[in-house]
């Protein structure tokens, strides 16, 4: 599909201007993606040179350095993830599509040059307060799809930042505004585009969560400053009758790697269940990469569940991830073609279930599973991210001393 899309994109560009080369001018751009209900997910980017730009989500800055041009069209490849923008440059910015080929997903995108306002302030009255902790339930109309979350927000005037934490991860760096009693929050990280809209009172929230142009679900929340999610360390465990965690999956050279290999014997080993498409996995992988450099006595190995349609494409994405963030430890291909957790359960039958990407298994020097951590509290969660790092280092050091 990618070759077809790129071919049409190039042909369209050549048809418009055969001998013209146009590039993006430096400065801010307000970029929007069309979603359900005629709504848009906005984010802010700044072009810093002909071939580089930055994407901003609250405190997050994403550096993009893969930009190509053809006549009056631009191709922007987001870092690490597969998603890219193919668009025609206009006098006011650009118009085109955000494309994720593995999911056959195409979202209309438009950029307005010279605008760095994510959401307009349309109500000059004193805004309601989103600041604080919110006990949240998503998809509350369907018991099967229902899941819980913890909203964590800071507010200054109309401006809001924060995130929703779930039992499996977080919804990244959210940024937005409160207009009166209406709130809008968004983020775009190159893999996912999220929009949260709704109404708040002093003690309740009601709203909708949009993901790209394919997903919409309702949520409700109540203010609860003491609310906590269930512990991430009791959700996934070894089933009765199993005493070891085991696997055998290929690396990029076709070699089957397992925990029984010599490189893992008598070593503290961290096994990460992940996917290159997963932003929380990326955050966790960045931490593990730095930790492994500083602690060579600890072995790391990742098991990738990829949505790529062929193993060749899957390993291309794995190698792209390794190169972009400097991963030296092996990432094995556990599955391609689907990120279904049902398939992950089949591939790893010793676990009660794979509830989240990422999931981390801590294995001691004797090969025994000492702890399994579901999900990841990324940098967007602030103090919780710092707490995770502290607890991770402390527990691994305990295993090393045994």
Describe this structure in words.
With 402 residues, this protein is α+β, with helices and mostly antiparallel strands. The protein folds into three domains: 2-113, Lipocalin, CATH 2.40.128; 132-223, Lipocalin (Beta Barrel), CATH 2.40.128.120; 248-401, 3-Layer(aba) Sandwich (Glutaredoxin), CATH 3.40.30. Helix content is 18%, strand content 40%. It has five helices and 25 strands. The strands form four sheets. A nine-stranded antiparallel β-sheet has the order 4-3-2-1-9-8-7-6-5.
The CATH class designation of the largest domain is: Alpha Beta
Strand content: 35-45%
Number of helices: 5
Query: Major sheet: size, sense and barrel closure?
Result: 9 strands, antiparallel
Helix proportion range? 10-25%
Low-confidence stretches are 1-19
Number of strands: 25
State Rg: 22 Å
Q: In CATH terms, what is the architecture of the largest domain?
A: 3-Layer(aba) Sandwich
CATH homologous superfamily identity of the largest domain: Glutaredoxin
Q: By helix and strand content, what is the structural category?
A: alpha+beta
**In angstroms, what separates the terminal alpha carbons?**
52 Å
Overall geometry: globular
Enumerate the strands of the largest sheet in spatial order, edge to edge or round the barrel: 4-3-2-1-9-8-7-6-5
